[in-house]
Design a protein that fits this description.
16% of the residues lie in helices and 21% in strands. It is α+β, with helices and mostly antiparallel strands and 422 residues long. The chain is globular.
Length: 422
């Protein structure tokens, strides 16, 4: 059975409800299909979630949209009876947990096979999140607002689900000659929840609430956690440790930045070569100060200024490679130049020095740049006693005794000339 299927770009164009706009979109789809769209085919394996293009190369996406790792929960061979059914619904109703993946809106939602795979996965999962919108972000708290068991699957609505209650009855009003009142009142807001369907095949076996939670582990976590623990558990280990250690990495989004450092003490909005950016400042002198530059929703530069030392600037993206489905870096490392820098080192030490950046300390043929040291206040500061080892304009006073052939100078000042005779 062939599990791969092509997904063309034109197939992801949503049709509008307006007939005129729908006709225009259909026309554009036909024109694109006859042009270059045929060469831009994306193939997705629905079993593994692997995404490739027409050349066979992997098309990386965010790892949180990739196929899940199947669980291994032992299931009973007997069918769920009415009594256990009510107990299971009672155990799951109003239970709280944390989302481990982005949960999209929409009537269909995500379908998870018990001890199996997720549908959709990969490119189709990402497409659903883009077209339908995200109802729950990874790490957000969710409430199991409704649980229904029917025909071999369990349907779970999270945060009131993707459909509003009484969506038909709220439009029906009754009354006499006076005011009309709706049959069902609500706040009139649009639903903003998600839906997860857990499938078992032909019938639902005997289950407990703990077993259902274990089967939902790829999507939901029911452990007792703090918000930052719930959020970081959805990330790769290196990125998780950086956030827990309050360290900022280039490539983080603003949500990761806030979890790592909190809200900044100061914000600036600047322009650099027609590129707008925000700069968040953490810390105040004499303590370390971090300047985090953000473009859009992404950290593009981190500058750390320590008292008495030259500022250190980081510009290398360390996050995007971690969030890819294969976890590989964007470009292979270059071992031909100076030593490779790891996390926490100066990522741009090989770049030309500029104002506020560190220079060529690691080049053995370059002059050594020593840290700046402020002079100490001393009442008897003598020439040549500069603590930062910079020579003065005047030669320093020699501490060695003068040679025996030359008498030692007792006074460096010249005596006044004698008065001329009268």
């Amino acid at each position: 059975m062939n599990r791969t299927r092509p997904v063309a770009v034109a197939h992801r164009i949503p049709l509008a409800r307006d007939p005129g706009r729908a006709a225009i979109l259909c026309t554009l789809a036909v024109l694109l299909a006859t042009g270059t769209v045929a060469a831009q085919v994306v193939v997705m394996d629905t079993r593994t979630g692997a995404v490739t293009n027409n050349t066979g190369e992997a098309a990386p996406i965010d790892r949180r949209y990739a196929q899940v790792k199947p669980t291994h929960v032992e299931l009973s061979s007997s069918e769920l009876d009415p009594k256990t059914r009510l107990e299971l619904i009672s155990a799951l109703q109003s239970e709280q947990g944390f989302a481990m993946r982005p949960l999209p809106r929409g009537h269909k939602g995500l379908t998870l096979q018990a001890n199996g795979t997720l549908e959709p996965a990969g490119e189709a999962y990402l497409s659903m999140a883009v077209t339908q919108g995200i109802a729950v972000n990874p790490g957000d708290r969710v409430v199991l607002s409704d649980v229904r068991i029917d025909h071999g699957h369990i349907v779970i609505d999270l945060n009131d689900g993707p459909e509003g209650k009484h969506r038909f009855l709220r439009h029906i009003q009754i009354g006499g000659t006076g005011e009309m009142d709706p049959i069902v009142r609500d706040n009139g807001g649009e639903p903003n929840g998600a839906r997860v369907t857990l499938t078992f095949g032909n019938r639902v076996p005997e289950l407990t609430g703990a077993q259902v939670k274990a089967l939902l582990a790829p999507l939901l976590s029911f452990d007792v956690k703090t918000p930052i623990e719930a959020f970081t558990d959805t990330l790769p280990d290196k990125l998780k440790q950086a956030i827990l250690n309050h360290q900022v990495l280039v490539g983080m989004n603003t949500e990761m930045l806030i979890y790592a450092k909190g809200q900044p003490e100061t914000k600036y909005h600047e322009m650099l070569e027609n590129m707008p950016f925000d700069e968040w400042v953490y810390g105040k002198t004499p303590k370390d100060v971090e300047f985090v530059r953000i473009n859009g929703n992404r950290v593009i530069q981190v500058e750390i200024a320590k008292m008495g030392k030259a500022p250190v600037v980081f510009t290398k993206d360390e996050v995007e490679g971690l969030m890819r489905t294969d976890g590989s870096p964007l470009t292979p490392p270059d071992h031909s130049g100076p030593p490779t820098f790891k996390e926490g080192d100066e990522a741009n030490a090989n770049a030309p020095p500029s104002l506020g950046e560190k220079g060529y300390e690691d080049d053995p043929h370059a002059p050594v740049m020593k840290p700046v040291q402020f002079p100490k206040q001393h009442p008897d500061l003598q020439p040549g006693a500069n603590p930062d080892s910079v020579p003065d304009d005047q030669p320093p006073v020699s501490l060695k005794p003068p040679p025996a052939s030359q008498p030692a100078r007792q006074d460096t000042a010249k005596p006044p000339p004698p008065n001329p005779p009268n």
